[in-house]
Write a structure and sequence with these properties.
Layout (H helix, E strand, L loop, with lengths): L1 H10 L9 H12 L4 E2 L16 E2 L9 E3 L8 H7 L5 E3 L13 E3 L21 E3 L4 E3 L6 E3 L21 H4 L3 E3 L16 E7 L2 H5 L2 H12 L15 E7 L3 E5 L8 E5 L15 E2 H16 L2
Parallel strand pairs: 1-2, 5-9, 10-11
Antiparallel strand pairs: 3-4, 6-7, 7-8, 11-12, 11-14, 12-13
Length: 300
């Protein structure tokens, strides 16, 4: 009986040996609070998501974009089977960045598109090895050797690196974006610009409370803050407008119209868009018609 008691005591977990999550979080904040996290240093664990940190990209992706569930992996297949430690990654390609960090660089390889491995189609990255004076590169994933396109050729220095290594983000950074060509688009056709459809409640209570008038007034200011691509003066996003109570009202705000046109869809159980041309428009081209519509709705 005493031996069983000793065995149970031996296997009991000591509460003092369990790490405190609060203490771990505080220690991580103290360790990574001042110096930037450099992604090119091997063998280090990134700061916790609860820590405010800065990232210095030196060839590996920022932990803001990708994180592993574990940073210690079994060295052999037998150890992996015995430990049964699962491995996953949290990937956030559109992660928010602090004000003091630059967004990923945009890489444009022209009409031919990004340079890739001919076998596994891996994209050019800092771990591709250039050989034969820079005329070929060996894939870091499948080891296949691919010819370097003539427009992408560059000589190597005495260490085997391209002389333009630090000028090309895809060779020196861990996070970057490639500009896609039509070959990457459905039916070899570039996609249309995205669209925002503004749905406005014009029910009796919304009108009586003044909410509709307020929305229409603020809408004029809001439209000037539509998202823009980097370096563009005007937003490419198209806009459309629908009001609703018991039925839906779609509006034609085509730039060639003197006044907006309304189309009513009363069968809400079988919805459809009653017009194609003039529903989604460019703000700059149709600004006058859109502002006229907002004034009409606001006075309703």
């Amino acid at each position: 009986c005493s031996s069983d008691l000793q065995q149970k005591t031996r296997h009991r977990i000591d509460p003092d040996a369990i790490p405190s999550p609060i203490q771990v979080i505080e220690d991580d904040k103290n360790n990574h609070g001042s110096d930037p996290f450099i992604t090119g240093v091997r063998g280090q664990v990134p700061p916790l998501v609860t820590t405010n940190f800065r990232v210095q990209d030196q060839g590996n992706a920022s932990p803001r974009y990708i994180r592993c569930t574990s940073y210690n992996f079994p060295a052999t297949s037998d150890m992996a089977k015995q430990s049964q430690v699962p491995l996953a990654a949290v990937i956030k390609p559109l992660a928010s960045l602090p004000a003091d960090e630059s967004p990923p660089c945009l890489v444009d390889h022209g009409e031919t598109g990004p340079v890739r491995c001919n076998r596994c189609k891996a994209y050019m990255c800092p771990y591709m090895q250039f050989i034969e004076g820079g005329r070929r590169f060996q894939c870091c994933f499948c080891s296949f050797i691919t010819e370097v396109p003539p427009h992408y050729f560059q000589h190597l220095d005495h260490t085997g690196k391209r002389v333009d290594y630090y000028e090309k983000p895809e060779l020196s950074k861990g996070s970057y974006e490639f500009l896609a060509t039509v070959d990457y688009c459905k039916n070899n056709k570039m996609p249309n610009p995205p669209a925002f459809v503004f749905m406005i409640d014009v029910s009796y209570n919304a009108v009586k409370s003044g909410l509709v008038s307020l929305i229409c007034e603020e809408l004029k200011t809001l439209l000037d803050y539509l998202p823009k691509e980097g370096g563009m003066d005007e937003s490419a996003i198209r806009v459309g407008f629908v009001t609703y109570n018991k039925v839906l009202h779609f509006y034609n705000v085509k730039s060639s119209l003197a006044q907006p046109q309304m189309m009513v869809v009363s069968d809400v159980s079988d919805m459809f868009v009653p017009l194609l041309d003039g529903f989604l428009v460019n703000l700059k081209e149709s600004r006058t018609v859109i502002f006229s519509l907002s004034e009409k709705i606001g006075r309703a």
